[in-house]
Write a structure and sequence with these properties.
This protein is α+β, with helices and mostly antiparallel strands. The protein has a single domain (2-99), classed as Thrombin, subunit H. 30% of the residues lie in helices and 40% in strands. The protein has a six-stranded antiparallel barrel with strand order 1-2-3-6-5-4. A hairpin with a 3-residue loop joins strand 2 (11-19) and strand 3.
Length: 105
């Protein structure tokens, strides 16, 4: 599943690796530095947090407040559907671009 990790100045398109109510592990070629305050968005879910580690194209974000269990469940279900469909991360990124491109035009 894809999402966005935003700092005050930059938006990073990220792949969701793991998610709990306390935080998220993300993957991307470029990510914010450790200690940066961020906003994580995926689908209709949004959480504020801090990057607590960044290493080799992955990072961990600790949420300021726990993510509601219903939101965690929704994101897990959406991520499972993408993986079940057999789409690679690049294919998911292409689908994401098609979905959001009209809003950006």
């Amino acid at each position: 599943m894809l999402g966005t990790l935003s700092t005050v100045t930059t938006d990073f398109r990220v792949g969701l690796v793991n998610l709990s109510s306390d935080g998220v592990r993300l993957s991307a070629p470029e990510l914010p530095d450790e200690g940066q305050e961020v906003v994580f968005r995926a689908g209709n879910v949004q959480s504020f947090g801090t990057v607590v580690w960044n290493k080799q194209g992955q990072c961990g974000v600790l949420f300021e407040d726990p993510m509601p269990a219903a939101d965690v469940k929704i994101l897990h279900q959406q991520a499972h559907l993408w993986s079940y469909a057999g789409f690679s991360l690049d294919q998911r990124a292409g689908a994401w671009d098609v979905r959001v491109a009209p809003d950006r035009a």
